[in-house]
Amino acid sequence: MSTGVFKNQESLSPDFPIERHWDEIPHRTNQINMLWNFYGDILEKKGESFLRRLQIIGPSGSGKTCTLKFFGNEFEAKAKAREIDLNHVYMNLKFEGGRRVIFYRNLVRKIEPRLVSASFSAEELLRSLISYLQEERRYIILTIDEIDYFVRRFKKEGIVYDLTRLNELSNQPCGVVGVTFLARGKEYHDFLDPAELSSLGRTFVEFKPYSSSQVFDILEGRVAEAFHRGVCSDETLRFIADITASRKINGDLRYALDLLLYSGVLADNQGSNRILPDHVRRVLSQISPSLTTEDVVGLSDEGKIVLLAVVRSLSGTHPYTSLREIRENVGVLCEEFRLKPINNIDESLQDLWDRQIIDVRSLLEIGISGAPIEDLDRFLDGLIERLEARIEYGTG
After folding, report:
1. I need a surface site. Which of 183, 195, 277, 381 has the fewest CB within 10 A?
2. Which residue ranges does the chain devote to CATH 1.10.10.10?
3. Strand stretches in the chain, DSSP E
């Protein structure tokens, strides 16, 4: 039963199986086409194909896992339509890895549990699996996630060597038609010995970080599933997308989903029927504080006033303001606190951006994501009141 702002909170989980619910993976069509180009003709051969090896390289949250699961589901469905007994098998080495024998036990259990025996060595498990696939004319296409983590943690286990040389166990196709390794970068190659690196090959598909507009597109679909209509405006969603595409987060979609989820929870707890930019700022300041008291206190006097002008220019419903509004508010603040006019506003804004205190997308889109506006307004008011007193009594 849905309550508050949420319609289906689970759809914001990074582990939510969108590959089963969506007809496509947004902004990953090129990568899926590359996968089909690499593996597609296996279906023409009715599965009678020797093992192929491919690497997927991309940072965390760039859609590697859901894209490979989506492709695996499609590949399996098209194989079944051609009466080919083929299954896609996904393995995550962070949860299903470890010693070779444990990994192969987990792998075999997903394909044919009756083959698993506590007395079998890793080699026996692997050979029994290949014999079974060949005898039953069954085929699997295998996705191995977190391979970079595994080779750093368990370098001597030799799983890369095993899985890339399955063809050598028999003079006929082994039944494993493809192995796709997923990694965040190619640095893990440094942990492989020359034989492993040679058999792994150099063929890879790159997943670049999502841009702000791409994150927005993907979150739009999640919002429609997760929230009631009107809960999350396009402005708030674009604000989250901009934060996600920033230098620090680097397009990590998992981060965006967490930010959206906890902003919804906060709005719910406060009895709000809408997720506002300040809900996002408050969550952001808690899960990843990018703006500290020390950052603000360390600003020049002019910097504090210009920052307060940015704060005063931001309303509760709009994540950004314009340079013109900031200039106007600087003038108002100087009059309010009886301070000298500030002429180098642009220089102060540049310093605030260099310190990563403000976000600048254009002269019309200047905002703050590192702290709730209400809290920052109150804190800066106190600092500038002390500045005013210092000037008035000549103690500065």
Report:
1. 195
2. 293-392
3. 52-57, 86-92, 139-145, 176-183, 204-206, 320-321, 359-362, 365-367
3-state secondary structure of 313: helix
Give the pair of three-digit tokens for residue 211: 């841009």
List, run by run, the mean pLDDT of 10-residue segments along the chain (396 residues): 78 80 89 96 90 95 94 96 96 85 92 90 92 94 93 84 86 91 93 89 93 95 92 94 89 90 91 93 74 73 90 82 93 88 90 85 86 78 68 49
For 87-129, give the DSSP string: EEEEEEHHHH-SSHHHHHHHHHHHH-GGG--TT--HHHHHHHH
CATH number of 28-206: 3.40.50.300
Residues 62 and 28: their CA atoms lie apart, in Å, by 9
| Contact call for residues 63 and 57 (beta carbons, < 8 A) | no
**Domain 293-392 falls in which CATH fold?**
Arc Repressor Mutant, subunit A (1.10.10)
In the chain, residues under CATH classification 3.40.50.300 are 28-206
pTM, entire model: 0.78
Length of the chain in residues, anyone?
A: 396
Domain 210-287 belongs in CATH node 3.30.390.50: no
